[in-house]
Amino acid sequence: MNLERSDATMGNRKDNKRSGAGHSGKGSSNSGPTSSGGQRSDSGSRGPGGAAGKRRPGSGTGAAGARYRGKPTGANRRPTSTPVLTLDEPVRLNRYIASSGTCSRREADDLINQGLIKLNGEVVSELGTKVSKGDRVMVNGKHIVPVDREYLLMNKPTDTITTTSDEKGRRSVMDLLDAQEYGTLGLFPVGRLDRHTTGALLLTNDGDLAHRLMHPSYVVSKQYLIETRDPVDEKQLTALQTGVELEDGIAKADRVSYADDASPTWLVMSLHEGRNRQVRRMLEALGNEVVKLDRVRYAGLTTEGIRKGRWRRLSRDEVAVLYRKVKL
Fold first, then answer.
1. pTM given for the model
2. Domain limits for position 277
3. Does residue 280 fall inside a structural domain?
């Protein structure tokens, strides 16, 4: 059995019955950015969602490293975190802006070049400008301050859009979070899943990390469990891996296989690209249609143990691994 089948083949495994308290990793505070421990929020009162439904082929994602080892944290106790910036010494303006969750450092430099940043009421024109304690920074007319970095892994439910807000009033992934606890932290989803695609979605206010995770040059892997309308034959399976023609160029899977040997209508596909509706369009190019699409793994993180519409905080070890993946 190849890697994809092994990752996806979980139908006979027992459900993870642990809920409420999470397990924090043993990471050192020097091993990466400060995160908020390992508290799980996948079975508490936050966010909608019920018990997991009927299992389908490959519904589990038992990847090594997805679970925590160690002492559980109290379910209702928020893990301790430290400020990103104390401003005991002056810091570069782009770093200050990124620490607010507004954008990445590179994007902050672009905002400076566009004249959209003010420091103590004056438009900033030099990229090397530094911020000191007591300074007031405005981004496009909005006052910003550094916030603690947060890293949440959500199991996105269907009929939910991946934006911070929606002018049409549709439910977004941010509506699933506790507004009192998370509303002032500047969290945003890393990348997008379309409205009816479910699964692993990272939310953070770490602009630098988010920017690199979404950049194709860092080859961040995403794995999907797919149910198709019609059976996929071996020839089509090969075509998905060698490349199919889309309107925006050739698209191909990094790896693709049948899931569980259960049915030729169930596939496991890994990609590092992030084109709009890429998986769906690839199957459409073969004359097929995606019935269900679930992202079971993102950058090595899986949704194992997280019910639809729930989430958990990443451990420090997991955040450190993400930083290493994108060379931060």
1. 0.67
2. 222-297
3. yes
